[in-house]
Specification:
By secondary structure, the chain is an alpha+beta fold. The protein is 32% helix and 33% strand. Strand 1 (7-8) and strand 2 (12-16) form a beta hairpin. Helix 1 packs across helix 3 (46-61). The longest helix has 16 residues, at 46-61. The radius of gyration is 16 Å and the shape is globular. One of its GO terms (cellular component) is cytoplasm.
């Protein structure tokens, strides 16, 4: 079996999640601010964080995705995660997802992390398309995606069923050819 790829940016190590990270994930997934636009209810037990780690790691083992723990150098504490889900090798595409502890919001963390994950996706995985679906009201995600080169492609009415209701989504995407044109600017 292939080892989970560890990535590195100037400030962060992106590594595989383990059950030892459950307390860190619980710390921010129990915060309603973090789960407001997420397809999960806020956590009330550490067990939920362990189940999420297991689900993400299983998707990697099934060749369906990657989810990296974001740790600040040289600390090993997890401050967020980012990665690809709905990875479809046959179509050379994946969907990006992420979340971050509120203490680290608006500090350029996700911008730096997403740039490295995009590089990995396009250059190492051979992706042609990276997609992102966000809640129309999530202005932080909108700004992040636009800043990292994604383009809005459309508004999808009642696209997801989350927290017992249908919710709209905005789809963003970045193609390999667009990435190649802009990668020196990142």
């Amino acid at each position: 079996m292939q080892l989970f790829p560890q990535l590195e940016t100037e400030r962060f190590i992106l590594r595989n999640l383990s059950f030892e990270d459950a307390d860190d994930l619980f710390d921010y997934f129990s915060n309603d601010e973090v789960t407001k636009y997420y397809d999960l209810e806020s956590f009330v037990e550490v067990r939920q964080a362990k189940e999420l780690i297991q689900r993400w790691n299983s998707r990697y083992l099934e060749n369906k995705g990657f989810r990296w723990a974001i740790t600040v150098k040289p600390d090993n504490r997890v401050i967020g995660t980012c990665g690809f889900h709905n990875w479809v090798k046959k179509y050379y595409k994946a969907e990006i997802g992420y979340e971050l502890h509120p203490t680290y919001w608006r500090q350029g963390v996700m911008t730096e992390v997403i740039q490295e994950i995009m590089r990995f996706g396009f250059e190492d995985l051979g992706l042609n398309r990276i997609e992102a679906f966000i809640d129309p009201d999530n202005m932080g995600s909108r700004y992040l995606l636009e800043k990292t080169g994604f383009y809005e492609e459309g508004y999808l009415k009642d696209y997801f069923f989350e927290k017992n209701q249908f919710v709209d989504a905005v789809i963003f995407a970045l193609l390999k050819k667009q990435y190649d044109q802009k990668k020196d600017k990142f």
